[in-house]
Amino acid sequence: MSVEIDLVETYFESNGFLVRRAGEPHVESRKKKVSPLPTLAIFNPKRSENEQDLGFRMFTGDLVNIRSALVSLLGWSNSSFTNDCMTSDVRLAKFFKSEDLLEKLKIGFKPSPLLAESGMGEFLCLLVIPHFPRNEQKAKLLIDHLQDAGVDGVLTLRSIFENLLRKSSPAETFVNQEIFHTLKLLKAYDLVKEPQLDMFNEK
C-alpha cells in the first residue's frame, strides 16, 4: 500500500473512526482487467446513522455527520495524476475522464457477499481525490461525473494532509504512528509550516 492510503487511514482514525482495509475482489471486465481502487471501511461509533443532507464536497468538519462509509482513494501513486493537473482545470478534467472511474468504483463500492464490508448495512460511498477544480463550471461537471459513478461525497488529499499537520506537534511523542511521527519531524526541521485558515476557501 502507498503512503497515501496510510495518510487516509490515519486521518479517519485520528478523527474518531474505526478503520479497516476493505477487501479487494479481482474483477475482470470484458475488454481488460480492472483493478479496484484501494478502499477503507470506516465506522463512527458515536453516530447512530449517516446524515441525509451532507454536501458533496466534504471537509473534516463534516465527519461528525458520518456513521459508516466505504472510502476509496484515487491518488498520485495509483493513477495518472501529475502536478500539471493542479495548475490546469482542463488537464484535471481530462485526468478524471481517463481513469475508468465508473468501473473501478463499481467494484469497490459494491463488495462481494464474501467480503466483511458487505454486511455494513447503510453506508456512504466516499472518494478521496488529489485535487478539486477551481472553476465552478468544471467543478459542477466533475460532481455530475462522480455522482454517476456512485460517489456520495469527495475529500481532497490536501484537506486530509492539512488536518493531520494541525494535529502533529514536535513536542509530542507518537508511538506506532508513523504518519504523525513523519509530520512531526517535518515541522521540527521547519520543512513545513502550520496550515493557514484559508484552507477552508480551497476550491
What would your notes on this structure say?
- By secondary structure, the protein is α/β, with parallel strands linked by helices.
- It has one domain.
- Helices cover 32% and strands 14% of the residues.
- The chain contains 6 helices and 7 strands; from the N terminus they run H-E-E-E-E-E-H-H-E-H-E-H-H.
- The strands form 2 sheets. The chain has a 5-stranded mixed beta sheet, sandwiched between helices.
- Helix 1 (3-14) crosses helix 5 (157-167).
- The chain starts with a helix and ends in a 15-residue tail after the last helix.
- 33% of the residues are buried.
- The model is unreliable at 197-203 (pLDDT under 50).
Percent helix, as a range, is 25-40%
- Alpha-carbon distance between the two ends: 28 Å
| Multimer state | single chain
Number of helices: 6
Largest sheet data: 5 strands, mixed
Uncertain stretches: 197-203
How many domain regions?
1
Which band does the percent of strand residues land in?
Answer: 5-15%
Structural class: alpha/beta
Succession of helices and strands: HEEEEEHHEHEHH
List the helices and strands and how they pair.
Blueprint: H1 3-14, E1 18-21, E2 27-28, E3 33-34, E4 39-43, E5 68-73, H2 89-97, H3 101-109, E6 124-129, H4 136-148, E7 153-156, H5 157-167, H6 178-188
Parallel strand pairs: 5-6, 6-7
Antiparallel strand pairs: 1-4, 2-3, 4-5
Helix pairs in contact: 1-5
Describe this structure in a few short sentences.
The chain is an alpha/beta fold. The protein is built from six helices and seven strands.
